[in-house]
Amino acid sequence: MEDYQTMPLSTKEAKIRQIKNTPPVFIIGSQRSGTSFLYRLIQRHLRIGFGRDNGNFVRLMKLLPYYGDLNDTANLRRLISDIIDIPEFGKRFPGLEIDIDHFIANLESRSYPEIVRRFYAEWAYLKGAHRWGGKTPDYSLYARDLHVLFPDARFIHIIRDGRDVALSLFKLSWGPKVPLLAARHWRERVESALNFGRTLDRRSYLELYYEDLVQYPAQQFRRLIHFIEYEGDRERIVRDFENATAPKVKRDNYNKWVLEISPRQLRIFEQEGGQLLETLEYALIHPELAGRPVSIWREMQQHVLNLAIKLYRGEGLRGIYLRGQRFLRETTRKLASLSRPEPTQTVHPKESSYVA
After folding, report:
1. CA distances from 342 to 64, 82, 337 (A)
2. Does the chain have fewer CB atoms within 10 Å around its N or its C terminus?
3. For residue 226, pLDDT beyond 50
4. How far apart are CA 157 and CA 217, in angstroms?
5. In sequence order, what DSSP letters do the residues of 21-53 get, joined into one string?
6. Is 182 in contact with 170 (CB distance < 8 Å)?
7. Is pLDDT at 332 greater than 50 in this prediction?
8. What pLDDT sits at residue 55?
9. Distance CA 9, CA 11 (A)
10. What whole-number distance in Å separates Cα of residue 266 and Cα of residue 257?
């Protein structure tokens, strides 16, 4: 095995370390709020390499006591190997190949934040980026954990009218099919991000409304580059954006709910999510319903209807199949781990749940 520690830094390694030590940029917000649109926009023009780890790094953070002291090379190797062996790893980071010996030798510290930074930096380098970041909508629920790992992180919270979000969620195979559950899905993530972000200073947290982004893309792009402290020629990059991207943005891609959501769906959504809509300064059609408790009958009716629609579309059966497949994978992994050495400390953490 090569002695990587005594080798001079290659140009590639120097660049990876430079990327790794930049402040990360995380995009948070409810699914279907424009998170994908925003990260593609930033990635294209500002050369920030976004990873989409689906919450695996936060999940593993909860399991760190299982691995023991990471200064022990055996423990460190086991952790890195488990990260690479995550079934989704190849899907989330396609083309990223990790040599464990080289990875360990080039860590500047044996800490979990350093490991995660290194993974993201190698991915960003592969994508030809100068900085790194993460885009997983459910990080809205775990942004505090990310801030613990990366105190220098910048969080961009993209907010969209929950009624438009609901219409989009209805069309997804995994999404809720009824307004009550769609409102809760949206409200839980937005409130979590707001409660976290508004404890930070303006240098660390930015709120961006989807409606403003599509109507005034150049203006909002300027806010973005100042927030992330883009180090290049800002005027040139704004001109490039105005010429290449701004004309392609659909300026009317909002308020679809006005025509597409039914009166009954609207009443139910505004009853459950109306208070948050008002907080975010969206106008309500039924302000008298906002915050009114949902009856047990309405609760039951919405859950039954949600299940019926999923089964009718075959999505419920698919969900059962996917959960069964995941259970088999996890069971196989646990059985395989029985042959590994016992960790220095064992805990039994509660698994966090994430939406893909």
Report:
1. 14, 15, 9
2. N
3. yes
4. 16
5. TSPPEEEE--TTSSHHHHHHHHHHHH-EEEE--
6. yes
7. yes
8. 83
9. 7
10. 8
